[in-house]
Fold this protein.
Amino acid sequence: MALGMYDIITKKKRKQELTSEEIKFFVDGVTAGTIPDYQTSALLMAILLNKMNERETYDLAMAMAYSGDMLDLSEINGVTVDKHSTGGVGDKTTLVVGPVVASAGAAFAKMSGRGLGHTGGTLDKLEAVPGFNINLSEKQFFELVKKNNIALTAQSGDLAPADKKLYALRDVTATIDDISLIASSIMSKKLASGAKVIVLDVKCGSGAFMKTEADAIKLAEAMIDIGRRGGRKMYALISDMNSPLGEYVGNRLEVYESVKTLLGQAPKDITESCMLLSALILKGAGLAGSIEEGLKLAESKIESGEALERFKTFITGQGGDISFLDDLEAYIGKTERVDVLSESEGYITSVNTEMIGMASLYLGGGRTNKEDDIDPYVGLKILKKPGDYVKKGEALATLYYTGSSDVNKARETVVSAYVTGESKPAVVKHFYGYIDESGYHEL
Ligand code: URA
């Protein structure tokens, strides 16, 4: 019998399992534009309500990956590695992890996206480096990975086009927040990007899709299952997004903090996050026998200065000007600064990360539409984090702003993002655990 969307929707409505052929028929039709949006949306909602099993989720990811270009990295010597963060505020780990693992011998070949809403994007951070080219041709991308062990480019227009269409529909039909749909969407792009080893940084907390550790583990496991079925080595770190990562949010400010991390001068949370992600990649690439060995190797690349040197090679390889490294304070020095003062006293129990990201957006550092321009100079320095004690009138954060920033709105948003209480919160965790071949390990 010929396949038809009505029957496929009916099956999922009745909680039945879809066959590989049915999923491929659906994705091919979405890609070709032959399935009307109302039928696509109906199926997405049926999936969200009645769920897909692991096999169906894998089939959906593969069909979306194969809806466009599949990058074949096999001509690159060495193990190709990639990382993916499920989105955060102040998450600049790629800028550090890439050079660390490249200097240790892994081939870091990554395609990245831009930031939208409260979350930042790696491409925007790299564009805050004068001259840096994020639009490499496939030939340039391959040459740079072969020469420097590291290159990072914008996702090509034809990377998982079915996902692009489905994501746009999910966004307006309240069907984003399903683990199978999120996992297959993210993994379709990772599978199409070609790397052999993929390390996921799955965030949980106020600034993330997943609000609890248990849900973050479920999402990580769903993505790991897809990647392993697709022949990739998969690892995941489950990390906290109940406060921004590191001290700085904003594009130039985050490049600044990345360099500080490469110099070994950054706060503990961002440093540890970069080291753990690097260790997982190095283990996956066979350059370290265990996570502990991976951590030692990663730390040695910071201490010896090799990771910073590789960062410079990476930047110049893509046309960037590294003279900003000679005067890092001048690089972030162009804006006005003002402190946001606490209106209450007590222990900080939580910082709403999404609101901090929105404050950066009001200053001009983010976009509400894909086409918006962003100001690379503006952002925030976070001065107080969960567990700290704050007095009324004491500074919570510093805003870096220009004439076009909405400073008042940003200030109000930061004040509302901070919650204080009388007692010190229990241990504030930056990481919950990681998943490797042998399962989940709490940290
Ligand atoms: N990021 C993606 O690429 N897809 C999702 O569904 C959610 C986050």
User: Anything to note?
Assistant: Residues 167, 176, 181-182, 185-186 surround uracil (CB under 6 Å). Residues 279 and 291 are 5 Å apart (CA to CA). The chain has a mean pLDDT of 95.
